[in-house]
Design a protein that fits this description.
Layout: H1 3-12, H2 24-38, H3 41-46, H4 48-86, E1 97-106, E2 112-120, E3 129-135, E4 142-149, H5 151-169, H6 172-179
Antiparallel strand pairs: 1-2, 3-4
């Protein structure tokens, strides 16, 4: 198979950089659909030697399809990790963002009237500690409470660390495509 034929097959299967990634089963189904289109079962049975030669010649295309899908899987994971890190850290909260915009009206001097609008509301940080009820296992009654680290903050930090690990492990080719 020529490079142009391989590229045409990949494009036909939707395996181009930036396409939605496929599951293993979806990828197999697409490859099988191309096989069935180009070499239907009756044609394979009628010409087993020709089919074997075509299959061997098509192996580079199959490998490129797997590589293309892996690229798209990494690209999707990279973009998802970037989106996760773009969210504000719960331990820090988020500051209010305001903007001054023209109201469309004019003041007595003919200058545009401005007003300040909140573009993004402030969100306070999540408390570092939370109270947890202590329950008597025999009676089921609450006997008191204890202060523990906030599990929401721990989960947020773990998700942020996992996202950063994905970004750090992303190949340069994927990063370059994502930032182009």
């Amino acid at each position: 198979m020529t490079e142009a034929e391989i590229e045409a097959l990949l494009a036909d299967a939707g395996l181009v950089p930036g396409a939605p990634p496929l599951t293993k089963q979806q990828l197999t189904d697409r490859i099988m659909a191309i096989l069935d289109r180009d070499w239907p079962l009756a044609k394979r049975e009628a010409s087993p030697a020709d089919y074997a030669a075509w299959r061997d010649a098509a192996e580079p295309a199959r490998l490129r399809a797997v590589e293309a899908n892996l690229f798209n899987l990494r690209l999707a994971a990279y973009r998802q990790a970037l989106a996760r890190l773009a969210q504000y850290p719960l331990a820090e909260g988020r500051a209010e963002v305001v903007e001054t915009v023209a109201t469309g009206a004019l003041d007595d001097d003919g200058d545009p009237m401005l007003e300040t609008v909140i573009v993004q509301a402030a969100i306070p940080p999540v408390p570092a500690q939370v109270a947890r009820a202590l329950v008597d296992p025999l009676t089921g009654e609450q006997t008191g409470s204890e202060t523990v680290p906030n599990p929401v903050l721990a989960a947020d930090e773990a998700e942020r660390m996992a996202a950063q690990a994905v970004i750090d492990a992303t190949p340069e080719a994927v990063v370059a495509f994502a930032t182009a």
